[in-house]
């Protein structure tokens, strides 16, 4: 294969220290399940799986059966996978045969699973997801009663892996009243279910934000995405941590990802000329611009036009003009030694300087998660220490 125009480096030590931090916060009783939906938040499932397995993560969560197959192709022997979202009936047989766990939020799915498990001769490993006020997916009260009855009647064909729900935005402290209500609703359901004859293996509710801010929501297992990759779920959660530690501790989360390319071309531009498409950037003086070999088709957001920065020789170079489909330009007038082939850091550290992931979301409505999860799968990922 020809060389790609950029590369992503993944830090094993950063991932390990993020998992260690979450472990410290949630305590030893909660299992940490790492969420690897959306190609491991754009980091690359194929590389992240073995990296996380090395840090002792034993269970991974994905959004679809399609993603579960990607994980299944690279997982180790004692690693399990949970599908939290879309699973089509036609994929149920494969899912049960491979021992993949899955969420159930409607009764038809449960009945279908019982039939398939019977045919396949292996139990369906289910997590019952219950409605607690998120109003997305989740079994209503009466449906839960019926679901538990089905699980009891078809006991041989099921493993009751979990009872769970999802909080609707624990990232935002200002709306924690809604989250507190959900936790109360979940508590009521949990108590009722645990009084019954049939008990789930694990109770779970929290994603990163709740894991780091609501100890009462951590239960037996936490589903951690953003924090594992070194991203604070939101400024609120980061600020809460800072206020609790009074800013004394260093940032306990480390970015796992760095993104790099190299200079494709360097060109002098005369004062008064425009750079790239359109007229959004007119050279205020004689300049030198460096051309980058990637654009919005390669994951570099158009929102960075005339706003973003890259690092070359450890110095910031501002984006000038519009980010186009496959190229963009940066100003290197102040950095006369820049030449074709020099390393460019799009995200990460170079000498003393850093381009943060957050700088990508500050200019647009995009969340960190949105930006990273859209990084094209075609960019090569390499694991570094
Ligand atoms: C994505 C997701 C998570 C992980 O969320 P983070 O905020 O990235 O930790 C947990 N649970 C469910 C159901 C999810 O969809």
Q: Which runs of at least 5 residues are low in confidence (pLDDT < 50)?
A: none
Q: What portion of residues is helical?
A: 25-40%
Q: Main β-sheet, in a few words? A: 10 strands, mixed
Percent of residues in β-strands: 15-25%
CATH superfamily of the largest domain: Alanine racemase
Ligands bound here? pyridoxal-5'-phosphate
**Which series of helices and strands comes N to C?**
EHEHHEHEHEHEHEHEHEHEEEEEEEEHHE
* Rg computed from alpha carbons, rounded to a whole number of angstroms: 24 Å
Judging from the principal axes of the Cα atoms, what is the shape? elongated
Instruction: Using the 3D structure, state the CATH architecture of the largest domain.
Output: Alpha-Beta Barrel
* CATH fold call of the largest domain: TIM Barrel
The tally of helices reads 12
CATH class of the largest domain: Alpha Beta
- State the end-to-end CA separation: 25 Å
């Amino acid at each position: 294969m020809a060389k790609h125009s950029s590369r992503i480096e993944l830090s094993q030590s950063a991932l390990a220290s993020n998992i260690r931090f979450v472990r410290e916060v949630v305590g030893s009783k909660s299992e940490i399940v790492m969420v690897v939906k959306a190609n491991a938040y754009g980091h690359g499932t194929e590389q992240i799986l073995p990296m996380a397995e090395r840090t002792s993560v034993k269970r991974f969560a994905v959004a679809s059966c399609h993603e579960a197959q990607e994980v299944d192709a690279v997982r180790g022997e004692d690693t399990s996978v949970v599908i939290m979202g879309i699973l089509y009936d036609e994929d149920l047989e494969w899912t049960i045969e491979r021992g993949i766990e899955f969420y159930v939020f409607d009764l038809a799915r449960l009945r279908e699973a019982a039939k398939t498990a019977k045919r396949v001769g292996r139990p369906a490993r289910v997590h019952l997801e219950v409605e607690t006020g998120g109003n997305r997916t989740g079994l209503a009260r009466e449906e839960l009663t019926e679901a538990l009855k089905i699980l009891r009647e078809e006991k041989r064909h099921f493993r009751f892996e979990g009872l769970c729900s999802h909080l609707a935005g624990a990232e935002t402290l200002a709306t924690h009243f809604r989250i507190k209500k959900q936790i109360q609703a979940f508590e009521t359901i949990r108590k009722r279910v645990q009084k019954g004859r049939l008990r789930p293996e694990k109770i779970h509710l929290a994603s990163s934000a709740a894991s780091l801010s609501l100890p009462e929501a951590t239960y037996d297992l936490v589903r951690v995405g953003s924090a594992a990759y070194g991203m604070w779920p939101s400024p609120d959660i980061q600020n809460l941590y800072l206020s609790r530690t009074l800013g004394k501790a260093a940032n306990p989360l480390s970015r796992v990802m760095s993104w790099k390319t190299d200079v494709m071309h360097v060109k002098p531009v005369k004062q008064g000329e425009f750079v790239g498409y359109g007229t959004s950037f007119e050279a205020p003086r004689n300049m030198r611009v460096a051309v980058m070999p990637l654009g919005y088709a390669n994951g570099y957001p158009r929102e960075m036009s005339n706003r973003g920065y890259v690092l070359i020789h450890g110095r910031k170079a501002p984006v000038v003009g519009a980010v186009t489909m496959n190229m963009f330009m940066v100003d290197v007038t102040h950095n006369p030694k820049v030449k074709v082939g020099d390393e460019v850091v799009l995200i990460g550290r170079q000498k003393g300087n850093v381009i943060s992931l957050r700088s990508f979301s500050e200019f647009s409505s995009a969340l960190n998660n949105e930006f990273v999860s859209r990084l094209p799968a075609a960019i090569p990922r390499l694991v570094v220490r």
